[in-house]
């Protein structure tokens, strides 16, 4: 993968104080190859590597303390940029209902997404109505009704009529159903309408026409192109076909829980100019989140989903605490008190091993995971609690006699105290790395 490649490349560079043009070219070649292997489209790769090369040869790298690190930083920044920079939020209609139409190939995850969106909106106090416009596939209507029920959202489906075919009749006019659905939403005061549409296995003219017709008939506020992140190089052709015939305002990447590294994401965003709004990460209705370009960049670089990890750790304490901690990190005032709080929160979260699983390099970490001892946290607590507030705030004043007093007070040895202080220093360094967007190590875990 890209990260392993870069690590190898940078290993050679690390010793050098400066990067030569040849070093940069070698690195850029590796990035190029890795991106192509991750199914990023060639034209996107070219543009990307050209940008990285230009910056890597520039002043910011020459002046950097660690040029190799700086190049990684540049690669990361450019990746975030190409993925859309800031996160783009869902657009709301000025006059409700906000109409969201889903389009994409069969099996992309549209119907599942309809349920996920409905649940997500309901959790925020909205009243979405799901509209079943997939009249192609047997059971499609029933499937939507099932996810609607799971999400606690109402579903509007075509009336069965008297053909005897039941409500999953594969006849009927999806454009008509879409319009009726929106009328129903107005009448019953739903503030969101999610229109599920049909897909085929491959791009096909009739399907495209139908999706285009629905779009023109209902003029949605958002048309979300739903695409399976695993489809690789086909992603680009599919996205372009949909853009030409239906056009869309945003993209949803599904099946990110699989092995796909997200090369498709890079290509689609870059070639269609349409932002990625959401990421779908499993079959359950909760496996869904707004898309974060920075997280995707980390994923592509295989840095693990560090931000998610941090977020989970923060679940245990309130937002105010989190904000204060972040401020401290940014201003470099991370103290032993903060360290203790973090330890306690990790323990409070209870699922430390699960969180560890989200970090990269799991192979190496496995043993450490097995050896991780929560008693360590209890010892840490005892030591820090034996310190004075002044000592906690400024560990630099911890001389020999203070350390001895603390050891006695906590029932631990001076060696334990020393080891804690050095782990704290490591953690402080790590927190600074995380604050700058790098790869952290976990307090108490030792280096990865
Ligand atoms: P549609 O044809 O576009 O409506 O696709 P469906 O919503 O019916 O989904 C097709 C299959 O993909 C179903 O088995 C879903 O459970 C599955 N699926 C959808 N989204 C995800 C996802 O994010 N991850 C995984 N692993 N499976 C998904
Ligand atoms: Mg469907």
TrEMBL record:
Q: Where in the cell is it found?
A: Cytoplasm
Which Gene Ontology cellular component annotation is one that this UniProt entry carries? signal recognition particle
Every copy of the SRP54-type proteins GTP-binding domain together lies at 275-288
Report the EC number(s), separated by commas if there are several: 3.6.5.4
Q: Can you tell me which residues bind GTP?
A: 104-111, 196-200, 254-257
Q: Major place of localization? A: cytoplasm
Q: Does the keyword Glycoprotein apply?
A: no
Q: GO terms for biological process?
A: SRP-dependent cotranslational protein targeting to membrane
Provide the alphabetized UniProt keywords.
Answer: Cytoplasm, GTP-binding, Hydrolase, Nucleotide-binding, Ribonucleoprotein, RNA-binding, Signal recognition particle
> According to its UniProt record, which reaction does this protein catalyse?
GTP + H2O = GDP + phosphate + H(+)
GO MF entries:
7S RNA binding; GTP binding; GTPase activity
Q: Where are the transmembrane segments?
A: none
Q: Reply yes or no: does the keyword GTP-binding apply.
A: yes
Domain remark in the UniProt entry:
Composed of three domains: the N-terminal N domain, which is responsible for interactions with the ribosome, the central G domain, which binds GTP, and the C-terminal M domain, which binds the RNA and the signal sequence of the RNC.
For this chain, the family text in UniProt reads: Belongs to the GTP-binding SRP family. SRP54 subfamily.
Q: How does it assemble?
A: Part of the signal recognition particle protein translocation system, which is composed of SRP and FtsY.
What is the documented function of this protein?
Involved in targeting and insertion of nascent membrane proteins into the cytoplasmic membrane. Binds to the hydrophobic signal sequence of the ribosome-nascent chain (RNC) as it emerges from the ribosomes. The SRP-RNC complex is then targeted to the cytoplasmic membrane where it interacts with the SRP receptor FtsY.
Protein name per the record: Signal recognition particle protein
Lineage, uppermost ranks? Bacteria, Bacillati, Actinomycetota, Actinomycetes, Micrococcales
Question: Where in the full protein does the shown chain start and end, and how long is the full protein?
Answer: 6 to 453 of 529
């Amino acid at each position: 993968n890209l990260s392993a490649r870069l690590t190898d490349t940078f290993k050679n560079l690390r010793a050098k104080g400066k990067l030569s043009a040849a070093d940069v070219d070698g690195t850029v070649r590796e990035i190029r190859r890795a991106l192509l292997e991750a199914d990023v489209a060639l034209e996107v790769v070219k543009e990307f590597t050209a940008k990285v090369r230009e910056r890597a040869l520039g002043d910011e790298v020459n002046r950097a303390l660690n040029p190799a690190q700086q190049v990684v930083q540049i690669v990361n920044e450019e990746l975030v940029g190409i993925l859309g920079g800031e996160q783009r939020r869902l657009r709301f209609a000025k006059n409700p209902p906000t109409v969201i139409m889903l389009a994409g190939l069969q099996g992309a995850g549209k119907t599942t997404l309809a349920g996920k969106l409905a649940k997500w909106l309901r959790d925020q106090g909205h009243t979405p109505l799901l509209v079943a416009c997939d009249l192609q596939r047997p059971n499609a209507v029933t499937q939507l009704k099932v996810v609607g029920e799971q999400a606690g959202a109402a579903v509007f489906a075509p009336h069965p009529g008297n053909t005897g075919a039941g409500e999953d009749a594969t006849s009927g006019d999806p454009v008509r159903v879409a319009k009726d659905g929106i009328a129903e939403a107005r009448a019953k005061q739903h503030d969101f309408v999610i229109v599920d549409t049909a897909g085929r296995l491959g791009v096909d003219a009739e399907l495209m026409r139908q999706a285009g017709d629905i779009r023109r008939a209902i003029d949605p506020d958002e048309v979300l192109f739903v695409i399976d992140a695993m489809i690789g190089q086909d992603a680009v052709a599919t996205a372009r076909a949909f853009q030409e015939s239906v056009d869309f305002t945003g993209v949803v990447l599904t099946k990110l829980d699989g092995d796909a590294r997200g090369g498709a994401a890079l290509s689609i965003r870059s070639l269609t100019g349409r932002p990625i709004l959401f990421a779908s990460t499993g079959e359950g209705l909760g496996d869904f989140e707004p898309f974060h370009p920075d997280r995707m960049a980390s994923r592509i670089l295989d840095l693990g989903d560090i931000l998610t990890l941090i977020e989970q750790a923060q679940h245990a304490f309130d937002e105010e605490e989190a904000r204060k901690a972040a401020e401290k990190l940014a201003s470099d005032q991370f103290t032993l008190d903060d360290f203790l709080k973090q330890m306690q929160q990790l323990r409070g979260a209870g699922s430390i091993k699960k969180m560890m699983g989200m970090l990269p390099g799991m192979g190496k970490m496995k043993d450490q995971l097995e050896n991780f001892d929560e008693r360590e946290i209890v010892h840490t607590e005892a030591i820090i609690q034996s310190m004075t507030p002044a000592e906690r705030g400024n560990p630099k004043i911890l001389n020999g006699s203070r350390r001895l007093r603390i050891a006695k007070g906590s029932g631990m040895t001076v060696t334990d105290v020393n080891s804690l202080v050095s782990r704290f220093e490591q953690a402080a360094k790590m927190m600074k790395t995380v604050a700058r967007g790098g790869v952290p190590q976990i307090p108490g875990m030792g280096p990865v």
